[in-house]
């Protein structure tokens, strides 16, 4: 069985000092440096692979300090505090002497409780009825995802005509790969910067901070398998060089797997 | 002029090693340990007061590792990376040898750009027309806020009858205090745990991770002054011991000052 390109990209080698060495992967290249989602997944993988890890990811925040340079990097994941059922992690990615990403994560042993999904999956046509996008962005990482846009795809004409930042897409790894926490973290960053959709105008952008809340259990990930996810993303405010965007990812059965938020730098 | 109790609570003393010493304040006590919002504000204040700080807060994430014990604590805020107009901070709060909070923040020199508020302020009656809450939670910190509930206040009867977690309130410091980034961080955590509203059932809860995105400029904070903020909070998913809640804070003029998210532990 050959290795999926995502597993190649997030592979980490343990170092004697407890840190990990990874390497940027050309298959997940963005305009400048790697796709932020793959960096988030690499950072989370430093926690997931850690021999001291307790439980599964509940939350992850990564802050992108600078575009990674193509080449090796070091992930440092430290269990800052371990409680009975929760564990707090600090994460840092370095290249040479420079810190290129800071972050934190919480893992927990989760137990079955009362629960409800308050945010319903929006009514959308099923994946089989949604045509592929008219426009494909040229970045390499975009080819790593099958994306079927229901609404709010990249503008075909950049004429400043946008009026809403809402996007809804069916999305999954390309080629398909059974969903796990690392790939879910990566897909959480798959939505194009909302400013492109809202303004239909190209401006320089870069995610500054990304937070992922994992609602999915390992059983729900297994049930999702290689199926499509319905992703929804929308901004709340664009102001003085930064905008936020909030997103949700449901599986085809309508289970809300992730809610995720980010704040993004934009110029002009 | 006497000092506002909030300023007393977030006061930090610089230490020779670059860290800060603070002290929990009885006025902001929660059920167990201090109100998470005041801890977030104390953490942010370690950045705000830092001599190396560049620009204003754009994002803040704090992770609550354990309830703080009443008494002194140490805030360590470190500029992990300083770029031309953005700066990345790592933050830790310690008591004795134990880490009780981890966090990160981003500050930036913000420049005027195109902008729009996509999430409109909900239509609500003005503060003068909203009666005070029927029920006041007994925690001390609750008295530090004037809260006028428009919808989704604490249940008068805990009979399991809830059906939506939506809350809308007018809120401001009590006594009034001109809004700044630290108090905005604190107020971002003012909303009761959504599980109380949704279930009308008392269960043990604790915020695990809180993220605040600051959209407000210093000018907009000055314009807001001691006016009311309209706060809105709602959960997206309750599952296996954790739920998320997303909130917004607008000033009376309808400017979206903050969007904020948290994930909260609950039992049963």
UniProtKB/TrEMBL annotation, chains A, B:
Domain Acyl-CoA thioesterase-like N-terminal HotDog: 26-107
Residue ranges annotated for the Acyl-CoA thioesterase-like C-terminal domain, each copy included: 128-265
PANTHER family: CHROMOSOME 23, WHOLE GENOME SHOTGUN SEQUENCE, THIOESTERASE DOMAIN-CONTAINING PROTEIN
Name of this chain's protein: Thioesterase family protein
Organism: Rhodoferax mekongensis
């Amino acid at each position: 069985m050959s290795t999926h390109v995502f597993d190649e990209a997030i592979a980490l080698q343990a170092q004697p000092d407890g840190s990990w060495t990874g390497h940027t992967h050309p298959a997940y290249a963005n305009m400048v440096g790697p796709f932020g989602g793959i960096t988030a997944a690499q950072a989370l993988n430093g926690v997931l692979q850690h021999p001291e890890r307790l439980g599964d990811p509940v939350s992850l925040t990564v802050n992108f300090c600078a575009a990674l340079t193509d080449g090796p990097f070091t992930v440092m994941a430290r269990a800052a505090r371990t409680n009975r059922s929760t564990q707090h992690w600090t994460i840092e990615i370095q290249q040479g002497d420079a810190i290129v990403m800071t972050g934190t994560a919480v893992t927990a042993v989760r137990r079955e409780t009362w629960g409800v999904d308050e945010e319903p999956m929006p009514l959308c046509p099923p994946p089989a009825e949604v045509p592929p996008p008219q426009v494909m962005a040229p970045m390499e990482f975009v080819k790593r995802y099958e994306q079927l846009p229901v609404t709010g795809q990249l503008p075909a004409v950049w004429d400043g005509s946008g009026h809403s930042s809402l996007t809804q897409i069916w999305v999954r790894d390309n080629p398909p790969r059974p969903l796990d926490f690392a790939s879910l973290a990566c897909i959480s960053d798959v939505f194009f910067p909302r400013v492109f959709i809202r303004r239909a105008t190209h401006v320089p952008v870069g995610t500054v901070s990304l937070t992922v809340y994992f609602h999915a259990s390992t059983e729900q990930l297994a049930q999702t398998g290689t199926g499509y996810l319905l992703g929804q993303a929308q901004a709340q405010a664009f102001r003085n060089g930064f905008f936020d965007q909030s997103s949700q990812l449901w599986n085809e059965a309508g289970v809300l797997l992730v809610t995720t938020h980010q704040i993004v730098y934009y110029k002009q």
